[in-house]
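Lab notebook, bench 4. Continuing the backlog of folding jobs that were queued last week. Each job is logged with the same field layout so the records can be merged later without manual cleanup. Today's entry covers G domain-containing protein, a 574-residue chain. Filled in by technician R.K.

JOB TYPE: sequence-to-structure
TARGET: G domain-containing protein
LENGTH: 574
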Amino acid sequence: MGSTSSTSTSNVDNKMPSSKPADGSPRQSSHKNVRVKRLPQQETLGLDAAVQNDVPLSTWSPPPTSRQTEKTFTNVLLLGESGVGKSTFINAFVNYLKFDKLELARNGQPITVMPVSFLLTVGNTFDERIVRFGDDDSNEIFDHPGQSVTQQCKSYVFTIGTRTKLRLIDTPGMGDTRGLDQDDLNMQEILSFINNLPHLNAICILLKPNESRLNVGFRSYFSRLIEFLGENVRNNVIFCFTNTRATFFTPGNTALQLRELLANLRIKDIPFKKSNTFCFDSESFRYIVACQNRIDFEESQKQDYEESWVYSVKESMRLLTYICIDLQMNSRTEWKSIDYARFQINQVIRPMLETIRNLFRNLILHDEKSSTKFIELSPIPIYYPSSICIKCKRTLKCCNDFWVYSDQTDIISEKCPQCGSSRHSHIDVNYPLDYKSFDNTNSQYIDEIKKELDQLKEAIITFRNFISNTNQTVHLSSDPILTILNRIISEEKYICVEKQTEDLNSILKEKLDGFHAEYQQRPSKSESNRNSIDLEKIYKQIEKITQMETIRNQMNAIEQYNKAYMVQQEKVLC
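JOB STATUS: finished
OUTPUT FIELD FOLLOWS
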């Protein structure tokens, strides 16, 4: 998926227009609203009063403060190793909010915000039963052990009292058995998703107790996420432990591994103490799911699960109190870090290079044709993950004597619907381009084109040096600028062959080849270490570039795509 730049004002908390497919047909939602009974008179109920009066936590609201005078979104990002149980935790947490007693959950209708599937050993002969509950969801895949069950980020929103909407963001697990490349894709998915939020209230790290070691991939990407969000995020990190009944509702031996991890992070002083650590036992949720599947348990087991449920309900209230009252939200404007700057640069590379290509077109029209008719880029907003098949014959149209692509995008799938080629033969796009002709008789227009072209060339080199000096991930070492530039040159080469033209497109290819050579010949400025990089200068350069009209229009199209994507990936529980 694409993401916006630092100048974007995307805020998914605002009311969104319903996104529709390109054919105008309404997008169908597969989600059903789940209504949770609320008691509006109890909206300022405190923790002790809620527990003593057997009031469901869904009725509780943080007391009004200067920061909470109206219904607001509380955004919580969940991060953990593959298999730690993030999806189960979300399911359990929602039920803790609705049912303060296990008996009520067992006799009522448990909420499943996503499907549940697990293996349970039952009876004296230890028979294995696969327990399933909830509707199928293509985002939750259980058939490949070791792979992250959750395939994409997805958020779940439900109301707490009358003022707060809690958004829990489920993420693909780290340490996927498909390897580091898949972990990289998962991390890019996470970073892209949260970049569309105006703020984060908490980064919740889910862990199992009594782990002898933490997965190397998890260590790497926890570190990467924290560095992405920057220094100010340290106090927004919380730790939630699942399945803690066996460790008497404590972190167990994992605490030692976690302290070691925190000590080795570049960002220091992330707290790990009772106030920001919460222990749950999600097995009690599995118990009520098993009961729905008519599996019997011994009385002693029921008592254990009852105790686990009561403890988990209290921890849920403590967690809500901590997040909604004790923590200051972490605004996206505070995400000033090297990694966030790299992320923003990656989002603006294609808009910059497409703009450079079009500036070359307009210079050629002036130099070769003495024309006052020029070409402007017209990005087309799309509202679903799309791609262009490079194996299919692509559509061309003529605009001011230039041949340009007029691509039709396809919804991303495993195979091309036209030629049947694999997913690897597709280019993901978050906006296709159209081209329009316009007149400009201003004698200074060509000087403006040349000035803008020089600014973009210099910015490209600056960004190239920044990426090179800050790239510490070997398997992501390819130059993203060169990758897209090579693709653009290949497109022009294809046009020249297809149309057998020696006219304007061939001149354009020569100019792009020259820019390619200049890009590679310009020496890289190497910084001795990350601390010597002028980060403020980079952010100012990003802001300057994204204020250019042609760049801004493309970034706006990306923003519209991101908003629609967020709507599609969100399930609202009323």
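OBSERVATION: The longest strand covers residues 72-80.
SIGNED: R.K.
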